[in-house]
Amino acid sequence: MGENKKQHVVPRYYLKGFSSDGKSFFQFSAKARRTVGVNIKDVCTRNYFYDLSSDTDHRLERTISIVESQQDRFLQSFLNDVRDDKCNLEDNAIRFELMHFMLFMVARGFNARENISRALSSILDLSVKTMMNNEQFREEIAQKIGKPLSINSNMIGTHLTKGSVMWQAPLFEIIEPVAEWLCENDFIHIYCIKTDMDVAWKSSFFTSENPVYYKTVLDNGPYGNHGLLLPGTFYYMPLAFDVFAIVGDDDYRNKLNVDKYEVSFLYTSDERTKTIIQLLNEITIQSSSDLVFSIDSDFSCPEMLLKLHEKGEI
Question: How far apart are CA 33 and CA 292, in angstroms?
Answer without folding.
Answer: 11
